[in-house]
Amino acid sequence: MPNAVVKVELSPSGMKAFVTVRVKPHGELKDSAVRLTTEDILTALSKAGVILGIDEEAVKAIIAEKKWGEKTAVAYGIEAINGEDGHVEYLFNTEQKPRPKELEDGRVDYREIGLVSFIKKDTPLAKRIPAQKGKPGMTVRGDTLPGRDGQEVFIKAGLNTYFPEGDDTELRAAISGSVSLRGGLVHVESSLLLKDGVNFGTGNVDFQGDVVVHGDIISGFTVKSGGKIEVTGVVEDAYLEAEGDVLIKGGFNGSGRGVIRAKGDVYLKFVENQSIEAEGSVNIGESSINAWITAGDRIELSTGCGTVIGGHLRAMNEIAVKVLGNAQCTTTTVEIVGDTTEFDNKHNSLTEQLDACKEQIEKVKRALSILQHQKVENPENDPRLLAKIQNYQDQLYELNKTEETLRAEITKLEVSRVGLGNIIVMRKVYPGAEIIIGGAELKVLDESNKATFERLGFEVVDVSDKSLASI
To answer: What phi and psi, each to the nearest 5 degrees, are found at residue 370?
Structure first.
């Protein structure tokens, strides 16, 4: 017979069983006198209902290593496995935001990028990978634990797409055209391919889908697209308008009569003497010379030479360039439009409070002066007169404290970050550059290297300047 007590405990989840052996009476027996076998412990586990995942080696170790009084895990349940959620595997490039390859010599290669993905009719566009069933688990007492089944996800069919009859696991193209993913829906739209550029042979172009031009668009012509526009060559003094993005692999130059308007982003190798308006961002691979560019998000020239000389660049959130201006001090303006309403309202409110406080201080001072004069003329120390004088002195003290606090808040606000976007110059800024952020302007007078311009209060400053690090 065993002369030890075997205590069995289960974890709250029922996934582990523990054994604690206590010898009788209260540990007074020598280790050699303890009578306990592996079978005794297994019997105790069985009586406690433990039937699954018993680690017999752990049970033997309790006796072999004389783990008296030590709580030891000896059985483990089987964890339930949740099934993986289903997902959609798209069979085309869904991230059509081209980024040019920068070569070892610093030049930028625009030849291998594109906005439009062409496909043929009946091409598979997306596959639905079904969710997996969960696998049940079991506690050490044999109770079943259900595994959660994965959630199903379904393909969302857009324009000119279809599912083969009786099969919702694969989406195909109903027409030949360009494929895109917008708002979670897969669309295939007819595309216009112009193999010899836009010129007198084609005339002006106005097309509801994507337009792809192999070659150049010469001066005087118009291309309008209900989708994207992609040009493999150069665009001269032409007018381009797109409901989506615009990509010009060769660049955009002329005498200043060319305009690009896009509701998406604009990507091009270079621009010279032309205008660009994008509701998204403008990404330029090499340089901007005497260009007028407006972007609803950001303007970036961070590849190639990344140079901006002349012209006026305006963005809502950020402008990032490598070189701003040139050694000839050409006037080059970059501007963050930004919304200063919150700053202006707070500054105006504090200023109005300060003006009202100063006005009240003057009123109190005048009243106090009159009372002080009355005291001189009536030296009897009238208690009511003295009380009035004390009251006004107390008011003046509090008003002076309020004025001091308001002045400190205004000063702090006027040197704080306004919270607009910034202008980043990665290599060099030349004299002649004009930095405008939220209406505040800075004219660069001295050549400098890397800089990050932000608006602090009413001023534009280079926040990379170590002297401003504490602001």
So the answer is: -65, -45
CB 320 within 8 A of CB 424: yes
Q: Which residues pair with 180 in a beta bridge?
A: 187
Q: Provide the strand spans (E) within 123-176.
A: 124-129, 137-138, 144-145, 161-162, 170-173
How many Å separate Cα 178 from the centre of its chain? 29
- Do the Cβ atoms of 304 and 286 come closer than 8 Å? yes
For residues 38 and 56, the answer to whether their CB atoms sit within 8 Å is: yes
Three-state SS for 115? coil
| Cα–Cα distances in angstroms (integers) from residue 313 to residues 195, 277, 310, 395, 461, in the given order | 33, 10, 9, 53, 18
Answer positive or negative: Cα dihedral of 246, 252, 256, 258: negative
CB 148 within 8 A of CB 106: no
Start-to-end CA distance of the chain, whole Å, equals 81
Q: Which pLDDT belongs to residue 35?
A: 81
**Assigned token pair, 116:** 């439009």
Whether the CB-CB separation of 155 and 173 falls below 8 Å is answered with no
CA–CA separation, 129 and 115 (whole Å):
27
pLDDT given for residue 419 in this prediction? 60
Amino acid residing at 285 = G
Cis omega (within 30 of 0) for bond into 25: yes
**What DSSP string describes 306-351?**
-EEESSEEEESSEEEEEEES-TT---EEEEE----HHHHHHHHHHH
φ, ψ of residue 29 to 5 degrees: the values are -75, 145
List for the chain the helix, strand, coil content (%; round to 5): 20, 35, 45
Cα separations in angstroms, 123 against 127, 165, 210, 366: 12, 15, 19, 89
pTM of the entire predicted model: 0.56
| Residue among 223, 230, 219, 220 at smallest CA distance from 208 | 223
Q: What is the mean pLDDT of each run of 10 residues along the chain (471 residues)?
A: 83 95 64 77 94 94 91 96 95 73 64 64 95 95 94 93 92 88 88 87 85 94 92 96 94 95 96 96 96 95 93 94 96 85 81 92 90 78 83 90 88 65 93 90 92 86 62 36
Element (H, E) at 373: helix 341-377
CA distances to 116, 197, 239, 339 from 227, in Å = 10, 18, 16, 30
**Counting Cβ atoms within 10 Å, is residue 200 exposed (0-12), middle (13-18) or buried (19+)?**
exposed
